[in-house]
Amino acid sequence: MIRLDINGKSYTADVAPDVPLLWVIREKLQLTGTKFGCGIGMCGSCTVHIDGQPQRSCQTAVGSVQGKKITTIEGLPEDHPLKKAWVQEQVPQCGYCQPGQIMQAAALLARDPRPSDAKIIEHMNGNLCRCGTYPKIKSAIRLASTGGKK
After folding, report:
1. Residue 39, number of CB atoms within 10 A of its CB
2. How far apart are CA 92 and CA 133, in angstroms?
3. Are 115 and 148 in contact (CB under 8 A)?
4. For 53-98, how does the pLDDT look when each residue is reduced to its tens digit (9 = 90+)?
5. pLDDT over 90 at 144, yes or no
6. Nearest-angstrom CA–CA distance, 107 and 48
7. Closest to 90 measured CA to CA, from 51, 135, 58
8. Closest CA to 135 of 122, 121, 150
9. Taking a C-beta distance cutoff of 8 angstroms, is the pair 40, 59 a contact?
10. What is the DSSP code (8-state) at residue 86?
11. What is the mean pLDDT of the chain?
12. What is the 3-state secondary structure (H, E, C) of 20-41?
């Protein structure tokens, strides 16, 4: 049995330790906010926080995260500044990649509450959006970093 701390709750899963964390989160625990994108850690759709750091859950063996704090998109409060900014800036088109985008952005703002545009672009590089909403993503991160003031 694998024991996990996800979004402040304790879970157990009867899986092999080499199973990707993404599949345990989605299929075993039914926390479906985290998305499968490419399966090779290149798109960022599956981004979660492990001990506060953004990680690609499709490439993270579930056995390697026992005893660590895992946060998925469901673990961010509804009133989180990024979630509010995402709505205000109308970021999503299809929305599929957005949980991973928000989790990547949340890690940035936790480390640097007022990042420059260059830091935003650098940090978000690697999280892909097939709809091309990058300008709106940057705008929402900027809005969240200013406390909702444009």
Report:
1. 14
2. 7
3. no
4. 999 999 999 999 999 999 999 999 999 999 999 999 999 999 999 9
5. yes
6. 9
7. 135
8. 121
9. yes
10. H
11. 96
12. EHHHHHHHHCCCCCCCCCCCCC
